[in-house]
Specification:
Methane Monooxygenase Hydroxylase, Chain G, domain 1; globular
Length: 275
């Protein structure tokens, strides 16, 4: 008996009537969802890169929505675990840019016409992540009007408090302050000095407010990885297409650089300079 036979002895080999690994994961539709529109070798890389990114964002949304619910019900330890996981998901997404950056401008140019007007700018899942975190630009909803299900999900998200609004409500309740989180809205979150002052009280005496201190650091950690993802996106785009306009019609690198200036949780960054 060979070493392989010894090691695999007892392993199930016939799955004609039982669920296999591929069945459980639904691998057939996933692995057959890549349909390059050109003969360019590198188009497969481009498609797989973006499809896997969408899968990671699918998981990020799953975790962020659950984290928000956990915070609303007071289950902070569960929320902390999920927020940590989302930060690591964006670390994984960051690593994916390293693979895409192996593609040169010449290689991308070979299949770029096949993209038409399609662009990552149109990702409804990415927009949901931003809406959930508090960066809410209602004007961008127009991009998703042609897809009823995606549009409805975005509308539902805008009717809910963002993750950060839920965190701010907890913060205000701790210090018996008026709830400064505000109602669910359709505009970006703007820094509120009174909220920064409350976070400063947490950071000044972390032992007395350890749960809020930990929540604050989980949020900063998440935004840290999210910012790195944005920065790597800009760098990758500039490396491959320079300052050409994006396929979706945006200004490309110039637009992405402006996005680097967006702060999701501004009071948590501003408080560092006030301590």
């Amino acid at each position: 008996m060979s070493d392989f036979e010894k090691a695999s002895k007892g392993a199930k080999m016939d799955f004609a009537r039982d669920m296999s690994y591929g069945d459980y994961l639904g691998l057939d539709p996933i692995l057959n969802a890549q349909h390059p529109l050109s003969d360019a070798h590198d188009e497969m890389l481009f498609i797989v890169q973006h499809q896997t990114s969408e899968l990671w964002m699918r998981l990020a949304l799953h975790e962020l929505e659950a984290a928000r619910t956990a915070m609303q019900t007071g289950d902070m330890p569960a929320a902390f675990k999920m927020l940590t996981r989302v930060a690591r998901i964006f670390e994984q997404l960051n690593s994916a840019w390293d693979v895409l950056r192996t593609m040169t401008p010449s290689e991308y140019t070979a299949f770029r016409p096949s993209l038409g007007n399609s662009s990552g700018f149109q990702s409804h899942q990415y927009r949901l992540v931003e809406f959930l975190l508090g960066n809410r630009n209602e004007a961008l909803m127009k991009l998703h009007k042609h897809r009823a299900e995606a549009f409805a999900r975005l509308e539902e998200e805008l009717a809910k408090p963002s993750l950060y609004q839920v965190a701010v409500s907890h913060l205000c309740a701790r210090f018996d302050a008026p709830d400064l989180a505000g109602a669910p809205g359709t505009t970006d979150w703007a820094a509120v000095p009174e909220i920064q002052n409350l976070w400063q009280r947490v950071y000044t005496d972390p032992r007395a407010h350890w749960d809020l201190y930990e929540l604050a650091e989980k949020l900063v950690d998440l935004e840290d990885y999210f910012r790195r993802w944005r920065f790597n996106h800009v760098t990758t785009v500039e490396r491959i297409i320079g300052f050409k306009r994006g396929t979706g019609g945006t200004a490309g690198v110039s637009y992405l650089r402006r996005m680097l200036e967006v702060e999701l949780f501004p009071e948590l960054w501003n408080v560092r300079g006030a301590l």
